[in-house]
UniProtKB/TrEMBL annotation:
One of its GO terms (molecular function) is excinuclease ABC activity. Residues 207-234 form a coiled coil. It comes from Paramuribaculum intestinale. This is UvrABC system protein C. It comes from the Bacteria. The UvrABC repair system catalyzes the recognition and processing of DNA lesions. UvrC both incises the 5' and 3' sides of the lesion. The N-terminal half is responsible for the 3' incision and the C-terminal half is responsible for the 5' incision. One of its GO terms (biological process) is nucleotide-excision repair.
Amino acid sequence: MPKHRKSHELEEKISILPSTPGVYMYYDAEGTVIYIGKAKNLKRRVSSYFNRTHDSLRTNLLVRAIADMKYIVVPTEQDALNLENSMIKEYKPRYNVLLKDDKSYPWIVVTNEFFPRVFMTRQRIRDGSKYYGPYTDTGSARAVLDLIRELYPLRSCRGVITPEGVASGKYRLCLDYHIKRCCGPCTGHVDEVAYRRHIERVKDILRGDMSELLDHLRKEMEELSLQLRFEEAQTVKERYQLVERYCAKSVIVSQTIGDVDVFGVWDDGGDEVFVNYMHMHRGAVVRSVTLQYRRSMDETVAQLLSYAMAEVERELGAVYDEVIVPEMPDVDMPGVTFIVPQRGDKSKILEVSERNARQHKIDMLKHMERNDPEQRTDRLLERMKADFRLSELPRHIECFDNSNIQGTNPVASCVVFRDGKPSKKDYRHFNIKTVEGPDDFASMKEVLTRRYTRLVNEGQGLPQLIVVDGGKGQLSSAVEALDEMGLRGTIAVVGIAKRLEEIYFPGDSVPLYIDKNSESLRVVQHLRDEAHRFGITHHRNRRSRSQTVSALDSIKGIGEKTRQALLTHFKSLKRVREADLDDLASVIGPSKASIVYNAFHPEGDADGENYENVNINS
C-alpha cells in the first residue's frame, strides 16, 4: 500500500515517539489543532496514520493536512481517554467528532424526584434533573454506575413514588430489595433524609470530588467501630476501598483541582535540566510545553523554576493564580499561591508533568543520536565510566567465562566489546591446560595469565575494563593474575554475580547494585551472556568431538585417514558400530575392517576367535 508523504521534521518526531499511553495532537500549516486522539501505544498509533492509504476519505484528508504533531504521555490508557475527552472539548478540532452534538454521547443523570434515581441516558430533559458528562466512552460511564450501585443501593424502578403513597403503604417491595440492590424507600425502610445523604455522596462521585467522600466514609467507619457495630463497619470499609480503587484509575482529569498551572522538573544531576509546564482548565490538561535549560553556574531547581515561570508568562501569556511545583521557586509573586503537594491528586498530576519532562529529554537524546550515532556511544561510555569507577572511557572491554561439566573438557571464553558493541572477530576460546578437575578459580587465573601475557608480548592494546563472570572468588583469581603480571592498576576489573546481578569490585566486600534499567548494566549483562553462549558452544563442540573420535582413536592400527573415511561414509560413530564386516570392508578394505569390527565386537573376531585387552573409550 502507498504511504503518505510527510516532512523530514515530522518523520523524525514520529521515529522517536515512546511506546507508552498518551494523547497526540495534529496541527495544520497554520498551527491550528486539527485532530486530537488517544493511544495505548503512541508510536504504533501515530505511525499507523502514515504507513498506508486509508479507506476513509476524511482520514486521508486529515493526514494530508498534518504539518506538525505534539503529544502528552500519561500513566494509563484510562488517563489517555479522559485527557482526550477534555482536550477535544477545549480545542474543538475540526476532524474530531465534537461533543457539541451531545445526543450521541451518554450522560449520567440524577433525577429530580422524591426518591431520585441514577442511570445512564443519551437524552437530556429539562425537568430539573442533574446531568453529568458527556462520556466519550460508554464503558467509562458504566464503570462509574457500577461503583455507585456497589456503594449505595438506590432504587431503579421507573414508578412514581410520592410521600402520600409511602405513608399509605401503597407500594410493595420488589426483587431488587431482596437481593440487596435497593434500600426499599417506597415502603419506608429508609427515610427521605437518609436517602438524600446517599444521593449527595453519589453527586460527589459524579463531580469527581472523592476526597470528601473518602473522609465521610472513614469517619463513618470509625464511629461504627467505636459503637462495636463491626459488621456495619466492615460494609462501610468495603465501600471505602471501592472508592480508593476507583480514584487510583485516573490522575489526569480531576474535578477537585480546577484551573491550575503545574511545573514539573526532571533533573538527573547533569548540566541539562528540563522543566515541563502544564495548564489545567476545568480539571483537565489543555496545554503542555517543555523547556530545556543548561546550567552555567550550578543553578538550583528553585532558580530554574523561576526562570521557567517568567518565560512561560512572557511567551505564552500565562496568568498565574495557583501553581503546583516540586519545591518553592526562587521568586516573589504577589497574589500567586504555590503548592508543593505531598500526596493526593495534585501530587499525581505533578508526577505526570515530571514524566513528560523526562520524556522530552529521552526524545531529545534519541533525535541527537539518530543524527550523530557517536553521541550515544560517548554517552553510554561516560555512564559506564561513572558506574564502574573508571579513570578513562571503557572503549575496549573483555569478559571471561569458564565452562565444564563435572570437570570434563574444561574450557574458557573471552568476548570483546569495542565502543559498547560486540567485536566478534576478537573473540577467543581457551582449553584449560594446567588445572586438574573443576576448579573455576584456578581456571580463571590461568586464562587471564595466558591472555594478557600474550597481548603484552605482542604489543597489542589492553582493555580498559575486564569483566569476570562470577562473584568474589573469580574476581580474586583475576586480581591475583593481574598482580603477578604487574597489570594491577593498569586494567580495571569487576565481577558480576548471576543471582542478583551484583557488581563486585576488588577489595570491596559489599557489592554494587546498579539500577535494573541502567544502560551500563545492560552492556555488562550482554557481555556476560555472550561469554556464556560462546563458551558453552565451544565446550559442547569439544565434548562432542571427544565422544565421537575417542572410540576410533583407541583402536590400534587405525589412523586419522581411516577414521575420517569411516565417519564421512557412515556419518556417525553409532552407524560405524552397527555396520557389518562387508560394509566396513567396502570403505576401508578387509584388513582394517576386521580390526574395526573386532574392536566393537570384543566377544569374538571375524573368524570367531576371542580378542582380549581391547581398550575402547566410547
